[in-house]
Write a structure and sequence with these properties.
Blueprint (H helix, E strand, L loop, with lengths): L1 H17 L45 E9 L5 E7 L5 E11 L5 E4 L4 E7 L23 E11 L6 E2 L12
Antiparallel strand pairs: 1-2, 3-4, 3-5, 3-6, 6-7
């Protein structure tokens, strides 16, 4: 009995040791949720926008402007600031990330939107960077990035404004 248990234990340990965990995800080909950010090209930060004059006529789904920073998350995606073009403070955004290759071909869209909660005063920017989680894979060959949001909620408003069609699965680089 002891010999059989020892044999089963040894076989189980060998099978476990032979297993190799894959870093690949179901995202884009060659994507890894833990990209070695040192192997990725250096990012060029977008310029700060000119002074923003908030407008109450800015439609809700045109009220947020994103600026890419020169910093990457652990997964390799760039970090972004968000600016408020509206006269009401932004409290929530549902944000998708898009990655493109050097020719502008879309390589990926994040599978689910990032649920961003904060407070962006009118005419101002977020107090912390928008960062995709480490389990959102960065596709190999990605050289440019854009954000898009399908849902926005202003502070003290009961309902958000939503349009799922604003961020389609395939979106040309603008």
């Amino acid at each position: 009995m002891i010999k059989i248990n020892a044999t089963v234990l040894l076989a189980s340990l060998l099978a476990f040791a032979a297993c190799k965990k894959s870093d690949k995800t179901d995202g884009a080909k060659g994507a890894s949720p833990k990209a070695a950010t040192g192997d990725l090209p250096k990012l060029t930060e977008d310029p700060e926008p000119a002074a923003i004059t908030p407008s109450e006529t800015t439609p809700p789904l045109e009220s947020a402007k994103f600026r890419m920073l020169a910093k990457r998350s652990k997964s390799g995606w760039p970090e972004f600031d968000v600016y408020n073009l509206n006269t009401k403070p932004i409290a929530f955004l549902a944000i998708y990330g898009y990655a493109y290759d050097k020719d502008g071909k879309q390589l990926a869209r994040t599978p689910v939107p990032l649920s961003w909660n904060g407070n962006v005063p009118p005419g101002d920017k977020s107090s912390w960077a928008i960062t995709f989680s480490d389990n959102v894979a960065l596709p190999a060959g990605a050289t440019s990035f854009q954000l898009c949001y399908t849902d926005i909620k202003f502070k003290d408003e009961a309902k958000s404004t939503q349009d799922e069609a604003k961020c389609p699965d395939q979106r040309p680089k603008s």
